[in-house]
Structure formats: structure tokens, C-alpha cells
Design goal:
heterodimer; A: Methane Monooxygenase Hydroxylase, Chain G, domain 1; Methane Monooxygenase Hydroxylase, Chain G, domain 1; two-stranded antiparallel sheet; elongated; B: mainly alpha; 69% helix; isopeptide bond (chain A); developmental protein (chain A); cytoplasm (chain A)
Amino acid sequence: GSGGFRKRKHDNFPHGPRREEKENVNPSSALMTSFKSFQLELDTRHDKYERLVKLSRDITIESKRTIFLLHRFTSAPNGEEILDESEVKLDAVRRKIKQVAQELIGEDMYQFHRAISPGLQEYVEAVSFQYFIKTRSLISVEEINKQLIFTAEDREETTVTTSNSHDKQPHTWSLKVTPVDYLLGVADLTGELMRLCISSVGNGDIDTPFELSQFLRQIYDGFTFIGNTGPYEVSKKLYTLKQSLAKVENACYTLKVRGSEIPKHMLADVFSTKTELIDQEEGL
Amino acid sequence: VPKKCQKAREHFGTVRTQLESLKFHEHWRFVLQRLVFLAAFVVYLESETLVTREAVAEILGIEADRERGFHLDIEDYLSGVLTLASELARLAVNSVTAGDYSRPLRISTFINELDSGFRLLNLKNDSLRKRYDGLKYDVKKIEEVVYDLSIRGLNKEATVGAGGEK
């Protein structure tokens, strides 16, 4: 490994005294002992980080699938089915988040935040999308976190928490989505809402675009309130948000100006020029 | 819809105030590492040993572990220690200039032990790893000093054997 590489650099240097001194290092000195424990501590931490990265990936994938599913929702009869299925999927995601919470017990959240942040953002995007479809409003971060309080209910955990146990402490885990992850997830949500807008027009729904336009504008206003005081990622997403908002506003404009001229079933074609191409590019 | 969106706007307001908290740890990192180095340096000058993590925490008045934001993270401790190595390389050189020919030998023993210790660690490609890469240059510099002394017969004392007992 790197040890061998380093030795080569010292080839033009006397070997004798150096080798001798290195052999004199006592492997069980206090310093060496503490470094051995450092090794263990760092390895354990890195392993945990990797486990969290894997969980985060799983969370991301399943959340994305949920979003795709939700895009198939219409007010048609199977709409209810789709919502139910999305709930099942999100429950699966939450089970993964529970594992994340369990990994993070007693740990400093900040160290591992980068491992799980992408997954959590995707989850926020998915759950807020579902919430919007159901209620036409924006889910709050408190509401999200309420769903992320877990208790020991599975079979293998009840052995620890029977009512007769001496240890009266019920095992609960919770994960708090940070404000930053929430914001980034909501920013991504706007992209999905923009797609929803375009596709709803194709379905002949000419009310949704206007609702979405208003809704997105409110979100945009909220973001400008934060402006550049947030982290870099937020500013970056703000730019994309502006574009999404513009697309939606243009769609509303087109509907307003030309909607009455064009039969509903042809409306989709009106939007199929630039916007659909861009949608395909942005698609996964 | 507008009513609920109004709620969202208020929410963004509260979110804004909380955005700052996570930044602080990063801001403190550099200062913390610097302080670790200084504590380690003082302890070395006093006792020629490596200050322990617990001792540093005590000197700095921080909790050794896990307090939000202000705990002494192992990586910060190790970074500070690596800075100590660089400073000791400098000290070795200046010791010779000042006529102290035995200190460099003791520093050399210490640094070699430190290097052996660091080799045990599996580091990721982060800032700690980069700083660790600098350790070999410190080791080399100190070895050069020792070498210069030994070929000129200036290290009258025998190399301190079994140097790892500190």
C-alpha cells in the first residue's frame, strides 16, 4: 500500500540508522496503544458511514420510484389505488430511515449528515409530493418529522420491551430532517410539480396548472426570503426553481391566451415542443 | 390553497434562523485543531510525551466526547498532533543551531513512534489524510538532522534505545 510507495522516496538516503530506530519502537507503548484504539475508532466510524451511505441510496431509489408512481395519479378511479400504493412505498422508505436512526444513536449527527442527506432530500421530495396531491398544500418539516418517530414494534424488538421488564424505557428512535434537507427536498419538489403541470394539461386538466402556478410562486417567495443566506446548495436550487416556475407560468399563459382557441385534446401538442424535450432531458 | 401556502411562508421564516447552527462546527474546526496543536506542543516541551486526547480536552475545557458541536473529535485531535510533528521538525533544526545536540535525537525517536502509530490508521482521502501525507517529510527532515549530527560525531550520547517507552 502507501507504506511501500513511501519507502521508495527515501532510497537516496542512508538506511542504516533509520531502520534501527524504527525497530526500537515498542509496539505496546502508551502511544502505540492509543493509536491502536484510534485505528479501531476510525474504522468503526468509517464502516458506519458506509452503512449509512448504502441506506441513503436505498432511500433515494425507493423515493424516486414513489415519485414516478405518483405522476401516474389522476382523478380517475385508480387514483386511490395509486395513493395507497405510494403510502406502502413510503412506509418502506421510513423503515429504512428507522435503520438510519438506529445507526445514529449516540452519534454526532453532523459527522454522518453528508452520508444520509441525499436520501433524506429525496424522501422529503416524495412525501411532500404525495401530500400535495392529497391536500394541495405544502407539508411542514414538523409533520415530516412526526412520521419519523419509531418505536420498537417489530417482533424481534419486543423481547427487550415487554411490559414486565425492569428496563421501563421504551425503545424509540427518531430522525429529524434538518431544515436544510427539507428546503432542498422542497426545491426538488418544485421540479416535479412543474412536470405535473405540463402533464395535467395533456390530460385535459386546465385547472391544475393555475393552482400550481400560485403554489409554486408562494414557494418561490419563501425561498427568496432566505435568499443567499443559506448554504450554497440552496442557492443553486433556487436557480432551477426559477426555471420551473417560469415554465409553469408560461404554460398558464399559453392556456389563457390560446386555450379557448384549441380543442382540449390538442392542448398537449401545444406544450409538446420545448417543454417535453426538456422534461425528457431532465428525466432520470 | 393560498391559506396553506401562507403557512408555508411562515415556515420558511423559522427555517431560516436554524440554518446557521450546523455551520459553526466547521468554523470552529480550524481553531480547535490549532488549539490541540498548542496543547500538544506545551505537553511535549514539558514531558516529551504525546498528550492524550483526554488531557487535551481538559486543558481546553471541553467535553471529551459527543457534546453538540464542542466535543474534541478524534480527527481534530489527530490533525493537531500532525501539526506538532511539523513544529518538532523545526525545533530539531533550531536546537542544533542553538547547540543542543541531544534534543534532535529524542525528537527523532518520538517522531518515529508517532509515525508508526499513524501507520496503523486506515484513513480516508480527506483532509486528515492529506495532512498525514506531510508527516513523512517531517520524519525525513528530522532524520537528516540526526544524520548530520552522527556523521560529524556530534551525537555524543548513544541513540536512546528502546525509544518507545514514552
